[in-house]
Amino acid sequence: MPSRLRAVPGVRTLSAYRREWLVKDLVAGVVLTTLLVPQGMAYAELAGLPPITGLYTTVLCLLGYAVCGPSRILVLGPDSSLGPMIAATVLPLVAADGDPARAVALASMLALMVAAVMILASVAKLGFVADLISKPTMIGYMNGLALTILIGQLPKLLGFKVEADDLVGELTGFVRRLGEGATVPAAAAVGCGGIAVILVLQRFLPKVPAVLVMVVLATGATTVFSLGEHGVSLVGELPKGFPPFTIPDVRLADVSPLLGGALGIALVSLADTISNASAFAARQGQEVHGNQEMAAIGVANLAAGLFQGFPVSTSGSRTAVAERAGARSQLTGVVGAVLIVLMLVLVPGLFRNLPQPALAAVVITASLSLADVPGVVRLWRQRRTEFLLCCAAFLGVTLVGVLAGIAVAVALSVLNVFRRAWWPYHTVLGRVRDLEGYHDIRSHPAAQRLPGLVIYRFDAPLIFANARAFRDEIRRLAGADPQPSWIVVAAEPMTDVDTTAADMLEELDETLDAKGVHLVFAELKDPVRRKLERYGLTRTLDPRRFFPTVEAAVAAYLRNTGAEWTPGADEDR
Q: Is residue 572 one of the residues assigned to a domain?
């Protein structure tokens, strides 16, 4: 086989395929399809698109990932976390009459843009950008997303509509319409009953396909009791056949807002993909190839976008179903795609009596899985600053909007990193009885100190953002009474010194020398020491003031002064 073909993950999997996997993959594909169909239709509506587009999207992304995806069992498809982002990007651009064809074209172009972003990021090896969202901000973002989805689906669950542009408007509109008696009792019974069925089965019979059972029961109830005649909206007849290859036709003015949405969707999809791929790969003893995953997600979005689909991501819940059903390879997804195509070609009317409130129940139960309330409680107990970051991300989604919320989440994550570099932890060290080395006097108030010597540790790279804080603290230590003669900087945590900090060190050293205080460095890493030499700083800082260890610096001080250890003093504690 040509080496170029073997570089394609799907070809490699096919060449190494084992005969004993076949039955398991076929069975897992059938089981997976029972989840793919209702969720695909529900998440399409969540994105503001016709239900059929969810099935088109599911088929193409499964086939695209089967060819290019490095993971053996990861399942792609329409996703509850992307639905609101797609709607927030596409719906404002749709004409006032809400033309479904234009919405589909915009969503397909959005998928193509996401594909381009992911493939380019893969080529540039930018998989690390998934780390731009910290876990606390992601928890807040997902909780806000879950609340946004829940409130947005409640009117549909109860059989009426609410026109609003934001979460507050949707909530107030829902309460107002509820008070006006707009609820359709039959729709409410189907929707609330559907939620109850899914949650009960997931809780007590996790191996039973809860969504499929609910869909069958809801469709059966609609047929038996003619719920369509009692005000319950139905999915109706799906278009027969498969969509043609289509280049989305959008206006030039739409490109800029679509690109902004594509960047946000690509970031969330990448973070979701890396986390899911890592979790399932660890269970199967596989390695995660982040850049290959990005490229594969890009190909899946490309395939969906060219056949009237919309952006997709990986799905932890559907992958878990495939794994529990015995999936061994991407043939599982291919089986699911083929079965959906057969349904569209042979029995397009299969879901014509499926109630819309049942789809709302699917979306609402999915939104509940996005929320992580225990995670918020844990942050409150463990670290209040990260709890506040989580709350800020949550408010960003709920008050500013889904797309702006992802920007808020990224900004907060980056600012939190900058804050830690700006105000790092720093302390004075002393000697503790029965413990080797030198330790934080805040944790060990009885630590011994040498008269005239201060051992100071600064736990961060020394850069422009914190250079002033470092200088001010050293000045404060040098101004103590009695005045120290040596200040030893335990520099092991300093992984960098930039030019701004180097200039500060030069001025600080001159100021301290004038007062008779020597600035000494211990445990400075070789790469950082070479930077100081390149900056020319060693011309002013005496090279004899650099020591390989703190112990060596203390020994040199003892030789020069003959000082003796004393119990910890009150100053600088």
A: no
